[in-house]
């Protein structure tokens, strides 16, 4: 059984389509998402429809939460804030209810998914360092947990100590725990503009990072014509 793990799609329909095409060619049959389906880019509604049609297991990201509820978005950067206001207007009551009812943490098969961290997930903290990874590991009961939020693919492995590193293919070994960031489908920030996702092969116990080209120019054009901040379009090209 092969799962595609989709992180931070952020309303980028062209990237999502390219990733799903690639996943299909790789023999993926199941889907899970570490959240932030919406925000920043111009296709929130179509992305939500596509994710729902996949029977994808999804957890709630901070953009999903604030697009679903009418709460103050003071804590966001001005760019993200503007995108949230715009996104709220695009979505139907049904879409917004869907975003509100998403869980913060979900166990799927033998692994766990979360947007930010298993330690106080509703505080939306970022895991870049071993210390933050350690706090999450204390609340992790499955061997593998996938997360997103930073938009940077990164692996933490806990044996007696915690190791941190980049990965292309990881072999899951018994007795260890893995906390894996799957990067971002819709707004990569590791200076590589290609869309990113991961495939978890549960039979082989391997996790493979995939990088996929997509029609970025079309995504940028839509951002411009929607009147969303143009910086949202520029950052796609620089992968930041
Ligand atoms: Zn995000």
Q: How would you describe the overall organization of this protein?
A:
The chain is α/β, with parallel strands linked by helices. The chain has a single domain, classed as 4-Layer Sandwich (Purple Acid Phosphatase, chain A, domain 2). Helix content is 33%, strand content 22%. It is built from 8 helices and 12 strands. It has helices at 13-25, 44-53, 62-68, 78-90, 93-100, 130-137, 216-226, 230-238, and strands at 2-6, 30-33, 57-58, 105-108, 111-114, 144-147, 154-158, 162-165, 169-171, 177-181, 195-201, 206-212. It has a 6-stranded mixed beta sheet. α6 (130-137) links the parallel β5 and β6 (144-147). α3 (62-68) packs across α4 (78-90), α3 (62-68) crosses α5 (93-100) and α7 runs antiparallel to α8. The chain is globular and about 50 Å long. The model has no long low-confidence stretch (mean pLDDT 97). Zinc ion binds at residues 8, 10, 36, 61, 63, 149, 151.
Write the layout of secondary structure elements.
Blueprint (H helix, E strand, L loop, with lengths): L1 E5 L6 H13 L4 E4 L10 H10 L3 E2 L3 H7 L9 H13 L2 H8 L4 E4 L2 E4 L15 H8 L6 E4 L6 E5 L3 E4 L3 E3 L5 E5 L13 E7 L4 E7 L3 H11 L3 H9 L2
Parallel strand pairs: 1-2, 2-3, 5-6, 6-10
Antiparallel strand pairs: 1-11, 4-5, 7-8, 7-10, 9-12, 11-12
The structure holds zinc ion.
In short:
This protein is an alpha/beta fold and 240 residues long. It is 33% helix and 22% strand. The chain has a six-stranded mixed beta sheet.
